[in-house]
User: What shape does this take?
Amino acid sequence: MQALRDHDVITPRQRQVIQLIAEGLSNEELGHALGITARTAKAHCDVLRQKLGVPRRRQIPLAYRLLTGDDPLAQSLASARADNGG
Assistant: This one.
């Protein structure tokens, strides 16, 4: 796996996409959650696969975590705990 180059910065929107992929959402569900089409969601995934150097969509969250040290599920898990009173 290749490391991110300086010009391959992950944008805040791409971080949202990574988080939703990590949560297991399909492109259709991702598009609905972000207010974009499934085709645009797929385009985001294609760009992320290229930036992170992985061949498969499902590898995006792990590649992001390995390259940045940030867990894409951490924020959603924290939100879920807060919603459940924990």
Observations:
- The CA atoms of residues 2 and 53 lie 6 Å apart.
- The radius of gyration is 13 Å.
